[in-house]
Amino acid sequence: MTIHATIELSAIRGCLEGMVPSMMATCAQDGTPNVAYLSQVCYVDDRHVALSFQFFNKTRQNILANPHAAALVMHPRTAAFYRLHLQYLRTETSGPTFESMKAQLAGIASHSGMAGVFKLLGADIYEVLSIECVDGSPLPAPPAPAIGLLGALRRSAERLMRCSGTDELLQATLTTLHDQMDVQHAMVLMLDANAHRLYTVASAGYATSGVGSEIEMGHGVIGVAARECTPVRISHMTNAASYSHAVRSSMQLLEPGLALDTDIPYPGLPEPHSQLAVPIVSTGRLLGVLFVESPLDMRFGYEDEDAMVAIAGQLGAALELLQNAAEPAGETPSVQDAAPPRAQPAPGAAALELRHYRVNDSVFIDGQYLIKGVAGAILWKLLRDHAGHGRSEFSNRELRLDPGIGLPDVADNLEARLVLLQRRLVENSPHIRIEKTGWGRFRLRVERAVNLVEMG
């Protein structure tokens, strides 16, 4: 055995990805040794790791009596072994480290058919006292990736800083992930703080966009990353039903007798093998989540996670700047403001029936669900002003000042909600459009006669 006193934990982070089970050796107070397999040895920082606590077994008893242990970890690509000498410090049963390990463990469990057995009771935090490289004949290290992440980050920053609108910014982020990091499936979700949900505003690589689909805070990889404000990365096949799809919300619980479906299908992969969700944060506030996934195992490593955190930080800062810059000075458009003439409906074209349900501000067009929540309230205001007063020109400012819309007082994400509404109309209603006309200003185009029905 060769001892390398200078080995840093960060240098062997590839061994802490969870692809290969690790082994842990402990001793009872009388010196009796015990060796057991571990589901997870996770990197916390350059001096600490977290080990999964799942069962109150002999290993657990030994650690509580004698806090010193050794863990044997293996690099999944080179088969090089390292021995970590550890000292137990504490057990965490909540917080970012625990929740991240819990999500990863669920992926391991579903991949191995042990979903009913693998249950995380706690994250045991250990100090790494020393690291030994075990003698052997490891395989050559894999070649460095063709895509340099530092260069990708620079090009990402250059592209994002040129964006002058929220829609452009979201698209630039997804394009950067595809072009610079070879990410084929990605989406951006924004936070609705009042509803404690995240809603999809942009996606790439899926058969359907899924714009408007929702994830509850704390649900799945995306919801956990949002609730704990920490990246969550899974390198194994996950149970898509419990860790990826949106939770169906039912109006029938709130309004008996309404057989209305307001669920927009979540666009995620049916069988993801790798997933990475990173919170989008600005000035200490959660704005949303940047999410990527792949059908391949181990597609996203810790360096990808680091790069994604940097991109999400750039995105959060840019979203905040655009929101602050998008408030126009001066008066808001009035009823008498000049507007393009209304498009005349085609001869014989039936009027569109738009129904609005006050219970959750959902809007249906000819019986088909379009949007709900704050975005639904915005659309209904625009349609009523258009039908009642002939208005077509609007501003972000007047929406923020309208108490009937229900925007939160802080972090209203108004621009993102308008992008969501705009994209839902493009996908589902060719006769109604929202067009940006300047900083904080937009136009509503209605090219068919409409019949507005308020459902109470």
Pick out its properties:
456 residues, 28% helix, elongated, 20 strands
Give the helix tally: 10
Uncertain stretches = 1-5, 110-115, 238-259, 335-339
Strand line-up of the largest beta sheet: 2-1-5-6-7-4-3
Query: Which class best fits the helix and strand makeup?
Result: alpha+beta
Query: Could you estimate the helical fraction of the residues in percent?
Result: 25-40%
Compute the separation of the termini in Å: 76 Å
Mean pLDDT: 84
Rounded Rg: 26 Å
Largest sheet composition? 7 strands, antiparallel
Number of strands: 20
The portion of residues forming beta strands comes to 25-35%
Large-scale geometry: elongated
Plain-language structure description:
It is elongated, with a radius of gyration of 26 Å. Helix 3 (149-160) runs antiparallel to helix 4 and helix 8 (373-389) packs across helix 10. The chain is built from 10 helices and 20 strands. The longest helix is centred in the C-terminal third of the chain and has 24 residues, at 302-325. The protein is α+β, with helices and mostly antiparallel strands and 456 residues long. It has helices at residues 58-65, 96-112, 149-160, 166-181, 220-228, 240-243, 302-325, 373-389, 396-401, 414-428; strands spanning 22-27, 33-38, 41-45, 48-53, 68-74, 81-92, 122-133, 185-192, 197-204, 214-216, 232-234, 274-282, 285-294, 352-357, 362-365, 368-371, 393-395, 432-438, 441-446, 450-454. A 7-stranded antiparallel sheet has the order 2-1-5-6-7-4-3. Strands 10-9-8-13-12-11 form a 6-stranded antiparallel sheet, with helices on both faces. The protein has a 4-stranded mixed sheet with strand order 16-15-14-20, with helices on one face.
